[in-house]
Amino acid sequence: MHTVSTLALLAVMAGGPQADKPRVVVYPFSTTGLPESVGSSLSEVVATQVARSGRYDVLTWQNIFALLKIEEVKQALGTDDPKQIVKVSEKFNAAFIITGNVNQLGGAYVVSLQLVNVAAVKVDRRITQTLYGDASQISASLRTASQALVAEMSPEKAQSVSEKAFESVLLSEVPKTLNARLSAGYRFPLGAAQNDSGLFFVRAPQAVVSLDTGWMAAQWLETGLAVSFGLADGGEAFQGRLATLDSTSDPISGAPKEIVGVTVLDMKPVFSVRDLTIAAQARLRPPVGVFLPYVAFRAGAALDRREVRSEKAASAFPGVGGTACPGWATYDEASGACLADVDLAPTSEVSWRTGFAAGASAGLDLLLSRHFGLTAGVGYEIRYWGSEEDVDLTASSTYAGPPSGAVTFVDRYKLPSFEQSLVATVGVLGFY
After folding, report:
1. Which of 127, 231, 308, 373 is most buried, judged by most C-beta within 10 A?
2. pTM of model > 0.70
3. Other beta carbons within 10 Å of 323
4. 119, 140, 173: which is the final residue of a domain?
């Protein structure tokens, strides 16, 4: 039985190529810095890719070893000389031979494939790739190199195509274990702008800068740390709901007297918001690929600084003695009131708070090269500060008269106990 099967195999192999395809023999690879047994496995990877091209009738060295004397096999496999290898391959009507080697040079691996023309006894094409990293990338390198080796294109173009294809394979197949994202965007407040008493909350849309790092702790799970900084400055706030006026003298007689019925038209307050959030983060995403959608969850602590400040106010109060107004005010016939712009000394109220922050987001990482990409996402965030707090912005000014006096304005705002916001960011991604 063994003799019959061997003769049948010999008849197939010694015959002409199948379906008018040129026959190519793939020899085992020589290796440096890798176990000898790896060479045969790597040649099988190349043989599979060449066969998939559909352009060749492929034989491997295992087929040849089954039919040749061991001395002939050793002689053929122990040299890179095309002439010596051709002597063995001619016995099988091979038109081409593929040989290769993988050499470790420091922290790099050099992969080289050669397509030898049996009739001309010369190397028709050579593909070389250099890998930086671990040996797990060698198989991916050989797949792209062997496809370019037998492609219908010039040798120069084949080398370029091979390098670009390998880069693409690394992007899509090699796991990205360490990641860092630097993003910028906006945080938009959600919910009511004022409390049940009609006092406005000290809040504003914020510019946000965030940095988060992560590593693949498990399949599809990236864990890490996220730090974000929010900033809002210069935007005008809503008018407060509390205002008083005290005067040291009667507007007409100059006698000390409190004037009542004053309304602040516009205190022109400005909000300034700063906050820092440090949170633990878990991100669910594919371990490999070029387009990496993700869903992220984070929870941590927040530090918040909010300031309300003003430098000017406009006021109105009832005219005293008909159209008589203080020298620093103007009588308005339409309203029957004295109107005045009062320049206030710069004043501000600053509040610091700490609280709890949490959020969820979804987005996409797009890989552009082996270590660089883009990222974008939208998310929902909450912050809990414990309780509401009052912020009273008080500003005073003196007027020379006649008569002389002093005016004090008070605006009251609220620091919210609970906040919701929508966050949208775009940024850059670095990975390894």
Report:
1. 127
2. no
3. 11
4. 173
